[in-house]
Design a protein that fits this description.
This protein is of the alpha/beta class and 391 residues long. It folds into two domains: 238 residues, Response regulator (Rossmann fold); 131 residues, Rossmann fold (3-Layer(aba) Sandwich). 35% of the residues lie in helices and 19% in strands. It is built from ten helices and 16 strands. Helix 5 crosses helix 6.
Amino acid sequence: MKFIHRIFLFFCFACTAIFSFAQTQTKQFKIAVFAPIYLDSVFDGNTYKPGITNLPKSVLPGLDFYNGVMLAIDSLQQEGAPIDVSIYDSKNKNENIGSVIQQNKLNDVSLIIGSFTNRSDTRLLANFALQKKIPLISATYPNDDGIVNNPYFVVINSTLRTHCEALYKFMQKYYAINNIVMVRKKGAVEDFIQSIFNQTAKSTPAIPLKIKTAELIDTFNAKDLLPVLDSTKNNIIICGSINEAFGLRLVRAVSASPSYNAVVIGMPNWDGIKDLDKPDCKGVDIIYSSPYNFSKVDKFAQAFISNFNTKYAGRPTDMAFKGFESMYHFSKLLITYGNNIENFLSEKSYKVFNDLDIRAVINKSTYNTDYFENKKLYFIKKADGNIKSVN
């Protein structure tokens, strides 16, 4: 029954992707939203493809983001918000980002919100936003993609550099006297991560951390980790790789060495590794940073969960929370500040679930704004599947 309900919602989306909000064309602010729905994998035009009994996994994140956006639109319309919203499936073969731009469908919009999955989509829309001077909110993708000199590009999911710098300062505050080890593998991304820690150590006004480095092969085991651990101290083990399999292997190795006191510092993508909750990771304290801290006990969050369940017959994932938050927060800013929105991106009056601290990232060579980025990070502690914020 739940699957049929979601397919029905899919059909509604397939139909409303073209006609949605046509009745509100006279409203003042036009907003375009892009989400990777992959409708083509479920529908042939507006006809549901027979034989599909489960939604493809590729569909679910974008669908949940879309569902969150729709609930935000419901709330905004109840408030009488003067908005006209068009939603596009960025993975639709006949109406992808490039074709939407070529058909001049975005020329009169005041704000673009996007959930991206790859570099080409991000760059294509960011270049258009710069050309037309339209703020583009990158709501979920955690990378700036090398975009520079674009003051209309806003990154909500903080970059890897920001995460690493914040983790370094966090360890300075809480773990400076511990045995600190960075465990990494060979690779360009791993080199980049280590370079950020090295640069932060050189620029810190405080006493730099003493970090040892252990470079291990992809198939290392618990015994390979023991030489860099200290049985007389608390061990702070930094995972110097965003490779999920490597990170998971590291936590399993620590779990298999219970005689050593250890805390594992993870990368920002660890909030999506479900296997960290399995028994072979038991007994390990894990800390990672995230720009999102969706407290499910918050009254507003509980109301959102209840509304989501009523409308979609399920519980919202973090993608649904992100869709709602980005749509509601930035729509309110647009309505209030109009073309001056870039000066009020962190306005606290419209906080939804998370605090935002959006600042200009200044190019050190040109002193121009490369982009705007959310610098607010939460530090999340996970132990045996239980999660809590530590700041």
